[in-house]
Amino acid sequence: ERGHGPYQPHEPGYGLDQPGYSPYEDQIPDPQARMLAIKNAKAYLLKTSTRSGLNLYDHFANVLTKILDEQPTNTVDIIEDISKDVKWAQFRKKMDTLRDEHLILPTFEAAEKCKALFVKEGGEEEREEVEEEMGQPSLPNVMETAFYFEQAGIGLSKDESYYILLSLKNLINVQPIQTCRFWGKILGLEMNYIIAEVQLREGAEEEETGEEGEETTAEGEKEMGEAEEEDEEKEKEAGPPKSTYKPPPEIPKEANGTGTNKYVYFVCNEPGKPWVKLPPVTPAQIVCARKIKKFFTGRLDAPIVSFPPFPGNEANYLRAQIARISAGTHVSPTGFYQFANEDEEEEEEGGDTYEENPEFEPPPVAEMVESLTTWAHHVKSILKQGRCVWINPSQKSEENEEEEDEEEEDKEEEGEEQQEERGPPLLTLISEDEGMKDIPAWTAQASTNLIPQYSVAILQSNRWPGAYAFASGRKFENIYFGWGHKYSPESHTPALPLPVQAEFPSGPGITETVDPTVEEEMAFKAAQEEALAEAEEEEGEDDEGEDD
Amino acid sequence: AGGGAGLSPERRAALGASLPLVQRDYRFERVWFWGCIQGVRGAYYIAQGLGPDRAAPRSRLYSLNCLDWSLLTPATKEMLALAEQVKGRFQGDPSFEYNLAEINAEAAARLIEGGKEPVIKEEARLIATIEQIDRAVGIVPRGAFVKTPLGSVHENRHFEGLSLVEAKKLSSYFHFTEPVNLKNKTLLEKADLDPSTDFLDSLEHDIPRGSWSIQLEKGGSVVVLRSLLWLGLTFYHVPRTKQFGYVYFGTGEKNLDLPFML
Questions:
Q1: Cα angle: A91, vertex A94, A99; to 5 degrees
Q2: Where are the domains of chain B?
Q3: Is B34 helix (H, G, I), strand (E, B) or coil?
Q4: ipTM of the assembly?
């Protein structure tokens, strides 16, 4: 565009606006006019926008600078986006410093915690003493286990496994622990759980049972007090009818160190966070956990809203699921463990203790994969009652009070049978696990077909998706990664609510009857008068009185 | 990897070798590993390939050992309808046939009338399941893809990742399928949207509410979203970078108990 208009004949440059005579070709630019044009254009570009306070000139300069700095490919396609970004960048600067400070907190906190894991504990003298007294508590070699599981394609990233190893080390230093094992990881909605299976040293356990014993005696006293009140009510006849509902006797939980409570579990949300101990599990919780299916949120104190109402909060539900998973899926090569006293094997009491078999010869990996008879459960399965060892609840209540004895015996005679439940004995082979529909309970694979001499036998459970076990020679391990639910081929149907209970037992006192009609009433009155007259006549014969 | 499922080093190495070959053979622009569906007797490894248009129907390949890949035909509506009837785990054998007569007598009758056998092969079920999973829970962060005025969808080369604040919100993630709910939004909401980036459904309105679990791992350096409807779908994104992706490791079954579990 040429800023100067058509030349008049008397002006210099006349004829130059014809093509061929333009100033460019003569290479004698007309500096003044051109400079004026440039100034006009620049002034236009520098015109500040009334809305945003930017001007086009600066904006173009910034955009071009950015493009020349970054040199992205196919710039012409994304030119508009670049332009927008440059505009946004103007605003970002002001808020930048503030935002940086906010952002620092969560990321760096977590990093600090992880770093703390790496710091060696001060006071090496203390550590040496502890080790001499108690013997070294065994820190599980999480990295080795992780390596084997990685061959199967299962596991966490190496970083995370290492963090877990370090936090387990912390746990061992803090708590009096005899043996420790990384049990697995359960995913939750907001946070996940990392779980360690632990056996406490004997002294520590006794303290706890002492406390719990006191609690149960206090409850027992309460029950006595209530029973006395109930007796008084029985004597009153004019009270509201007493409810005939007796809640089923509460099944006592198993003592620490046996059955479902054989191990103590510690959880933490992330490696670096403090470990929390999970309370021991009661049979009622296990029975209820079998009926509900809920996600874990990640907070141990979250309530579980479900039907049937779960007795406890998320910590109890987590513990119950851990118990079920352990009972269902912890396996070891057959023969690795054997019963302590094979002669005195009693099904009710014994079978809980096993020890390593020193003469165990590991079968080759191929065999372990092909047949499931080479694997056996080493955790007792949980009966329907919710315990590993069946207990007759009516026996227990005899100890508490004597008055209820008669009622209980009556009930037993009436035929409330509580059959003794027997589960499969301790070291059953997993080939006897039933599958669901067409799906076998376990899937066995070798980790690699290409290199048989180093491959590892891997077991996946189909009943509890996420439970894995591996075996390679004498080494074996179980682990769980998942959401914590059992697999069921049908959809989960929650229990239906119970039928509405009758308020009062029906009887003549409260049932409605049809009001008598007038004729019936008259007849009744006549009959009464007759009876009265007869009675009076009899009296009249004796007394010679006047009667009608 | 935080979910506990992963690939063994052998498989990873095999994938690294075989996926580029797939790209060469099928002339894809991009190939990536979609995930793994575990059957009772074996596992299927799935890969996806794309041509230049990102929103075009994707070609899927499956393999039993991460080395030999076979192309899967695109899913048809019949396949999808039939596959929804079949429940239970995958068997691990692509030629396994599910007997439809046991499952749904009507569908079997229809097939018989049509002159076909009342069975559905596991391969078809696999195709349908992958398609369902992608449609239901295949997600991308907001801003990662732009729609040009011509209608084709490209990756946004200017996408620099979500900020930490945005990454925690469900509304910053979109389903990468045809939008269903977009037109139902009120005019007020529409005014805030930017048509070049907001042309997909966001996750906020997923039914049932709460079917996604968002977690920040490693103190916020990675955002992980896990779907609760299809257990095993994990989406990750490193905020402030261009890295994101999703992968499925699971049994290939929809979690129908979800409303009870929340």
A1: 105
A2: 9-72, 77-127, 138-260
A3: strand
A4: 0.77
A·B CB contacts under 8 A: 108
Chain A residue closest in CA terms to B229? A295
How far is residue B257 from each of residues A295, A459, B95, B208, B262, measured CA to CA in Å?
11, 26, 29, 11, 9
* CB-based contact A443 B256, cutoff 8 Å: no
Quote the tokens at residue A39. 């100034």
Kindly report the nearest CA distance between residue B164 and chain A, in angstroms: 8
A151 contacts on B by Cβ (under 8 Å)? 8-10
Tokens of B34: 């979609």
Scanning the structure block, which residue is given the tokens 């005579």?
A21
d(CA A460, CA B2): 18
Helices then strands, each counted (H, E), chain B = 8, 14
The answer to whether the CB of A179 falls within 8 A of the CB of A138 is: yes
Mean pLDDT (10-residue bins), chain A, 548 residues: 59 58 52 79 71 72 82 74 74 53 56 65 38 49 73 70 79 78 83 82 48 38 40 49 62 63 82 81 81 80 78 85 83 72 40 59 68 72 68 49 37 41 63 64 70 73 79 78 74 66 63 75 85 76 54
CB-based contact B11 A153, cutoff 8 Å: yes
pTM of the model as a whole: 0.68
Nearest CB among A185, A443, A492 relative to B40 is that of: A443
Distances (CA, A) of B113 to A227, A439, B84: 72, 31, 21
| Cα separation, B22 vs B70, whole angstroms | 10
